[in-house]
Amino acid sequence: MKKIVIILLLVVLASPAFAQTEQKADFSAVCSTGQVLHYKIIDYGEVNVWYNNQNPELLGGYIKVPRTVKYNDQNYVVTGIADEAFAHCIRIQGVELPTTMFFIGERAFYRCTDLRVILMPKTLTYIGSSAFEGCSSLIDVVMPNSLSEMGEYVFKDCVNVRHFVISHALPAIPEGTFMNCSSVTDYLIPASVATIGCHAFDGYEKLQSVTFFGPVPPEPECPLAFGREIPIYVTGQNFPAYKASYIWGQYAIQSM
Any long-range contacts for 101-106 (C-beta under 8 Å, 24+ apart)? Predict the structure, then answer.
């Protein structure tokens, strides 16, 4: 029994998630909006915003993440938000990310329940799984068209978001992306989207329409949550392809 416990402990200690939470930030600095942010040096001249390992509930207000930060007389470019960097920071109300940043890590803003505004830069290319899950105060989300990849459940339980502007560079809407986003009234699906993951739209309540702009109907990986009463709009030239689709043809497809 002792051997099994030791083996399990070694597995946990070796896991990336545990390793990150045990690692300390290399330094901290006050940003222009007055909050102390922690940073981890990841490469020569580059840093990530690191996790808030003490009293996350004390970090609040509107945060403007800097483009560069200085440490030991050297300037570092801020290129990303690390996994769980702001997780459970329940007093953060808004975040503005710099144009030097290209990724947001997994669970980066997990359960930031007072977060209302997130301004993403045009350089952002990746958002990790559950990055904004449980951000129940978010109202509107605009994804930059530079965003080309997302993990699963990124916006799950964002119950007050009314509208998402989806990146035109996304090839897929991953599993659970908009799960329980019950306040959304419409989705505009860009032409880049070829697949829709399981449970991507589960839990809708106020949805009034879905509009597809792609000439080829996206392929759902599971049965869709959309009720047949939800109007599906497509552009006129794409109408025959959707009407002929085994899946989408079962819906009330309308030409616009």
Answer: 101/65, 102/126, 103/79, 103/127, 103/128, 104/80, 104/128, 104/131, 105/48, 105/80, 105/81, 105/131, 106/130, 106/131, 106/151
The fourth-level CATH superfamily of domain 25-211 is Ribonuclease Inhibitor (3.80.10.10)
149-198 pLDDT, tens digit per residue, is 999 999 999 999 999 999 999 999 999 999 999 999 999 999 999 999 99
CA atoms within 13 A on the CB side of 128: 17
Where do the domains of the chain lie? 25-211
Q: How far apart are CA 205 and CA 227, in angstroms?
A: 10
pLDDT in tens, 58-111: 899 999 999 999 999 999 999 999 999 999 999 999 999 999 999 999 999 999
The model's pTM is 0.90
